[in-house]
UniProtKB/TrEMBL annotation:
Pfam families referenced in this protein's UniProt entry, alphabetically: Penicillinase_R
Keyword hit for NADP: no
Classification lineage: Bacteria, Pseudomonadati, Pseudomonadota, Alphaproteobacteria, Caulobacterales
Top-level taxon of origin: Bacteria
Keyword field contains Transcription regulation: yes
Keywords: DNA-binding, Transcription, Transcription regulation
Family annotation (Gene3D superfamilies): Winged helix-like DNA-binding domain superfamily/Winged helix DNA-binding domain
Source species: Caulobacter hibisci
Family: Belongs to the BlaI transcriptional regulatory family.
Name by which UniProt lists this protein: BlaI/MecI/CopY family transcriptional regulator
Length: 127
């Protein structure tokens, strides 16, 4: 569903996912190319009507949260990037990420090694 959103709605939704919960003003301030306050509120209302965003009220006013878990949204967005820019190859995407020059912590390196081990195990084999 997220892939079918108009560009600006998707940007508002992805910004809200990054923030995990926020007011309309908070979302607006976090956008790379800010929209008017009323435009952000309208888009959040549209996203709520589509079942992607939930709204609650607290002392700060209306607080918006993504309905889906952020991990699920991130996986969908990453799949879209891999399909678009890396011809569907997760290995090419991972190589590109590692080529950005950011050093991995020992914990991150161990996690990556575990993921590679799991991805390369033949189903039904025990290693």
């Amino acid at each position: 569903m997220i892939e079918s959103l108009p560009r600006r709605e998707r940007e508002v939704f992805e910004t809200l996912c990054r923030l995990e919960a926020s007011t309309a003003a908070g979302v607006r301030g976090a956008l790379s190319d800010p929209l008017s306050d009323s435009a952000v509120r309208t888009m959040l209302s549209r996203l709520e009507a589509k079942g992607l965003v939930a709204r609650t009220s607290d002392a700060e006013g209306r607080l918006y949260r993504p309905v889906q878990r952020t991990e699920a949204v991130a996986a969908s967005a990453l799949r879209r990037v891999i399909d678009t820019f890396f011809a569907g190859s997760a290995a090419s995407a991972a190589t590109a990420l590692l080529g950005l020059g950011q050093k991995l912590t020992p914990e991150e390196a161990a996690e990556l090694e575990r993921a590679i081990d799991q991805a390369t195990q033949v189903e039904g084999s025990k290693s």
